[in-house]
């Protein structure tokens, strides 16, 4: 991907009314544009009061101007920031003036793209710029900042460095075949390879959590009619989103609500109670409820625990029968929510986990009351765990799906390399696996990334970034 020689400009602040609005300009024409509008180029990195004038010399606005020479700017090129008043018309007039002086409108993400192409930041950092801006919670903002400041990239470089050193060592030994046998038997190689695998695992755990903070999870609430699914939906979302009534079969449509639970963006889905029914509309509701299970990351299976243990067990067995097929295709966690513990509790005497675990491996059980809110702390904790978040993991990195894929591929190559070494004593193949692992990691920082991928990443940014 080549950097275009154009000077680019865009309004960097959100559209609308505001005390201050900022126009950002990047490229070689910056000194001319500053002079054209204000008569001079300000001192580098010094906020300078100026009058911004049109081509007829009439004042458009007055405000601050900031100039960053190419050596010390975000994009790696001369950058000018024009801080005017944040009105739609003022911003438009200022931008038009900048364009008349030779700049062209910037494409989405083009400032960050230039920063990447000029080696000011790597690809993971560029993505973190967008992720920080789009953060929906404090936890996700913190992890984005960690990636932006280069902590994630530093871990990747450290891993890459270790892979290179080991590879060079292995390749050197291959060149002297008489020493190769001794060398491959060397315990230190195995140890170094193991150390790389452990480090890689740690980075994956931290990145996986960051990706949950970024992508969020879908939580489907399912269960028999009247179990209190809609009541649970309402309590979790903090508002009366769904109609609640003592009549079985109240909810028919699928209801969705977007919220943040413990820093994670969560899409909460309430569904119709699952039962056999002659009612066409309700049947359609049940069909839709079942299909939500396949789309979810975590299923909350709600059971009314106010009946006798036998009734509760019967309800769980009935649900398993109905859900059997969809659960076959589901690879997330099921949280069995024993509801209505304000009336009676069977949670102590019935183990739903024992009943469900033959069908689904990852299942847990909590006892709550959607009416009083009792037990919700435990429920929140379980949701967090089931989403793959672990509060003891420190230094979470904001990561995207593509980073996780690249890390998974790197881990596979390292594992294959370990096998080649210990089972086949094949130095040549070990070196090849190390090279492939290094390549996979290079995709994260953008060292080995196609123009196509880069294009797609920067396109998803907004204008002015
Ligand atoms: N005592 C008590 N009653 C509850 C609790 N949760 C729900 N209920 C009551 O149970 C009845 C059914 O609640 P809903 O939330 O409508 O149940 P649902 O599972 O959504 O039912 P459908 O939409 O018909 O499938 C209502 O009368 C609620 O007030 C609870 O924790 N304790
Ligand atoms: Mg309902």
UniProtKB/TrEMBL annotation:
Residues 216-388 form the TrmE-type G domain. Its cofactor is K(+). Its EC number is 3.6.-.-. GO terms for molecular function: GTP binding; GTPase activity; metal ion binding. GO terms for biological process: tRNA methylation; tRNA wobble uridine modification. Binds 1 potassium ion per subunit. GTP binds at residues 226-231, 245-251, 270-273. The keyword 4Fe-4S does not apply. Exhibits a very high intrinsic GTPase hydrolysis rate. Involved in the addition of a carboxymethylaminomethyl (cmnm) group at the wobble position (U34) of certain tRNAs, forming tRNA-cmnm(5)s(2)U34. PANTHER family: TRNA MODIFICATION GTPASE GTPBP3, TRNA MODIFICATION GTPASE GTPBP3, MITOCHONDRIAL. This is tRNA modification GTPase MnmE. It comes from OM182 bacterium MED-G24.
């Amino acid at each position: 991907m080549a950097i275009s020689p154009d000077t680019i400009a865009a309004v960097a602040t959100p559209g609308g009314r505001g005390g201050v609005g900022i126009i950002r300009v990047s490229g070689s024409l910056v000194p001319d544009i500053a002079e054209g509008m204000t008569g001079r180029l300000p001192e580098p990195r010094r906020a300078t009061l100026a009058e911004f004038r049109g081509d007829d010399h009439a004042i458009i606005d007055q405000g601050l101007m900031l100039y960053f020479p190419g050596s010390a700017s975000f994009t790696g090129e001369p950058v000018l920031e024009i801080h005017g008043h944040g009105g739609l018309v003022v911003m438009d007039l200022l931008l038009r003036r900048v364009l008349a002086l030779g700049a062209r409108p910037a494409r989405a993400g083009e400032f960050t793209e230039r920063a990447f192409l000029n080696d000011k930041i790597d690809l993971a950092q560029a993505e973190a710029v967008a992720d920080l801006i789009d953060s929906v919670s404090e936890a996700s903002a913190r992890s984005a900042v960690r990636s932006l400041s280069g902590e994630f990239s530093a871990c990747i470089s450290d891993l890459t460095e270790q892979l290179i050193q080991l590879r060079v060592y292995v390749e050197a030994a291959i060149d002297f075949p008489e020493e190769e046998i001794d060398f491959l038997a060397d315990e230190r190689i195995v140890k170094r390879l193991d150390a790389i695998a452990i480090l890689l695992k740690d980075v994956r755990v931290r990145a996986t959590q960051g990706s949950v903070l970024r992508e969020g999870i879908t939580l489907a609430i399912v269960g028999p009619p009247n179990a209190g699914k809609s009541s649970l939906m309402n309590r979790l979302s903090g508002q009366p989103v769904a109609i609640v009534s003592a009549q079985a079969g109240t909810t028919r449509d699928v209801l969705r609500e977007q919220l943040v639970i413990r820093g994670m963006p969560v899409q909460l889905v309430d569904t119709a109670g699952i039962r056999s029914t002659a009612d066409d509309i309700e049947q359609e509701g049940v069909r839709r409820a079942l299909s939500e299970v396949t789309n979810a990351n975590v299923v909350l299976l709600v059971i009314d625990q106010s009946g006798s243990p036998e009734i509760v067990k019967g309800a769980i067995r009935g649900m398993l029968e109905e859900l059997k097929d969809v659960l076959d295709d589901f690879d997330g966690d099921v949280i069995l929510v024993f509801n209505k513990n304000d009336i009676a509790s069977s949670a102590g005497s019935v183990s739903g986990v024992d009943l469900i675990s033959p069908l689904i491996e990852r299942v847990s059980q909590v006892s709550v009351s959607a009416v009083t809110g009792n037990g919700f702390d435990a429920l929140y904790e379980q949701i967090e765990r089931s989403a793959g978040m672990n509060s003891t993991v420190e230094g979470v990195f904001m990561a995207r799906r593509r980073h996780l894929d690249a890390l998974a591929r790197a881990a596979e190559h390292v594992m294959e390399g370990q096998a080649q070494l210990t089972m086949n004593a094949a130095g040549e193949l070990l070196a090849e696996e190390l090279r492939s692992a290094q390549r996979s990691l290079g995709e994260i920082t953008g060292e080995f990334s196609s123009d196509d991928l880069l294009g797609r990443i920067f396109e998803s940014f907004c204008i002015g970034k």
